[in-house]
Design brief:
about 140 residues; globular; 2 helices
Length: about 140
């Protein structure tokens, strides 16, 4: 785990047929998938951890499912589109494809979740220490 000012590099994990880098974003309540990152390296998933643990897990699931369903070619864009944003995308998949998505994400979670939880706890520990330090001043 590598911690910078606003970002924690949690690790690299298999997700389906590829590997992805997982990051925790300090103080954020958002998530994202960067399929073509600036460094031209692995796909990146970022998960905001400025939220309670259950919400951080929900963000992680959202982003991993989104990437998995894109990679399985089940994402479509509604046209015509007037908003040009992510709400224009729909996912259409069979029951078997849903099972495959679960298989891919299950393996990812089994490997990534312990490290993600460690990162989350370390971030919260540091945030608590900062608050205590400010109170002493």
């Amino acid at each position: 785990m590598k911690i910078t000012r606003d970002l924690v590099e949690v690790g690299v994990y298999p997700l389906g047929l590829d590997y992805v880098k997982l990051f925790a974003v300090i103080g954020s309540a958002n998530g994202s998938v960067e399929m073509l990152p600036d460094d031209k390296g692995l796909t990146q998933i970022t998960v905001g951890v400025g939220v309670p643990w259950g919400e951080a897990i929900a963000i992680l699931l959202h982003e991993t499912y989104e990437l998995t369903l894109i990679n399985m070619n089940t994402r479509y864009k509604k046209k015509p589109s007037f908003s040009g944003e992510s709400s224009d995308y729909v996912f259409f998949l069979s029951h078997n494809e849903l099972g495959e998505a679960h298989d891919r994400i299950g393996e990812f979670l089994a490997l990534a979740l312990p490290d993600f939880e460690d990162a989350y706890k370390e971030i919260k520990k540091r945030e608590l220490a900062k608050k205590k330090k400010k109170k002493k001043k």
